[in-house]
Amino acid sequence: MSTLKKLYERIKHNPNQVRFDELRKLLLRAGFKERQPRKGSSHYAYVKGGKLVTVPKHSKPVKAAYVKQVIKALEGELPDE
Q1: Distance CA 57, CA 55 (A)
Q2: What does the buried/exposed string (b/e) look like for 8-36 if buried means 16 or more CB atoms within 10 Å of the residue's CB?
Q3: Pairwise CA distance, residues 4 & 37, whole Å
Q4: Could you report the per-residue pLDDT of 4-51, keeping only the tens digit for each?
Q5: Which residue segment(s) compose the domain that 19 sits in?
Q6: Sheet strands (E) in the chain
Q7: Among 2, 22, 31, 63, which one is most buried in terms of CB atoms within 10 A?
Q8: Helix and strand counts by DSSP (H, E) for the chain
Q9: Distance in angstroms (rounded) separating the CA atoms of residues 57 and 40
Q10: Whole-model pTM?
Q11: For the chain, how many structural domains are there in total?
């Protein structure tokens, strides 16, 4: 099992203890494009096809609601390694 899949499984089973950089890594490796916030915003947007996921960077750890949104968007999107 690749390290990316292991990270995905760990996040999926424990969405309460996830850091922003872990979610960012998963989304970028799955092919999502990152749109950085404009002046004064802490929310990063990730887009792939018709999917849009927004994740705030300021909270540590990221709130479970955002993590669950990312998990839903990543279903079937991770590359097989």
Answers
A1: 6
A2: beebeeebeebebebbbebbebbebeeee
A3: 25
A4: 889 889 999 999 999 999 999 999 998 999 998 777 788 999 999 889
A5: 3-74
A6: 33-35, 43-48, 51-56
A7: 22
A8: 3, 3
A9: 12
A10: 0.85
A11: 1
